Amino acid sequence: MSKVQAVIAPSLLAADFGCLAQEAQKVLDMGADTLHVDVMDGHFVPNMSIGAPVVKCLRKHLPNAFLDCHLMVSDPEKWVVDFAKAGASNYTFHVEAHNDPAALIDKIHSLGMKAGVALKPATPVESVLPFAEKADLILIMTVEPGFGGQSFMGSVMPKVKTLREKFPLLNVQVDGGLGLGETVETAAAAGANVIVAGTSVFASSDPAAVILGLRNAVNSRM
Question: I want to staple 48 with a disulfide (CB 3.0 to 4.6 A). Which of 11, 42, 77, 157 is the partner?
Fold first, then answer.
């Protein structure tokens, strides 16, 4: 592959948890590439959400879906085996929460999952450069992790640009406050190709149009 492609990942944090499998299937049918699963422990971030048991249920109902799990937890190594057994496709942990990210990437890979590394808005991009090529994706948070519905922080785009310039084929993910228009255009221009979008997809009267619009915004820049 000579260049990266758009990957649109609706965030299930914005879905109706009372019918989560149906909500997930709906956006997949409307063109989503992956499903972004936000996992919070109430320690690393002040909110709590879902864990491996819910991922296991999603896998049962969605056997072919790519479950992109974003662990906002204080001890990410503790949960790797549980999520692998549950059927997670990708396990993204925060660089701020582990003292040997390269080793944790290896452990995630050894259990058959792809590995991602996330950075909070205030974390320098230099913290992930030594092992960016080992990871399958780097997630640049465009809001403070832990809450949905926040406003997009364009101030972190230099980190996206740095990653794209140094690693042309790396999957660079952005998460937080993204939707059609200025936010996705700004992220795509900086080099992001994996777009996590929650409220803008699930609250839309036409999610398929939003997903297509996000994809077109990225692919027009790649």
Answer: 42
Can you list the alpha helix ranges (DSSP code H) found in the chain? Answer: 20-29, 52-61, 80-86, 101-110, 157-166, 182-190, 199-202, 207-219
188: number of Cβ within 10 Å = 23
Active-site residue, selected from the candidate residues 33, 41, 68, 175: 175
Residue 55 buriedness (CB in 10 A; 0-12 / 13-18 / 19+): buried
The verdict on whether 206 is a catalytic residue reads: no
Catalytic pick among 16, 33, 38, 100: 38
pLDDT 10s digits, 125-184: 999 999 999 999 999 999 998 766 679 999 999 999 999 999 999 999 999 999 999 999
Q: What are phi and psi of 40, to 5 degrees?
A: -130, 145
pLDDT digits (tens, 9 = 90+) for 54-68: 999 999 999 999 999
User: Which SS3 state, helix, strand or coil, does residue 29 take?
Assistant: helix
pLDDT tens digits, 95-116: 999 999 999 999 999 999 999 9
| Cβ(108)–Cβ(98) below 8 Å | no
CA 73 to chain centre: 14
| Residues belonging to the chain | 222
Mark whether 41 is an active-site residue. no
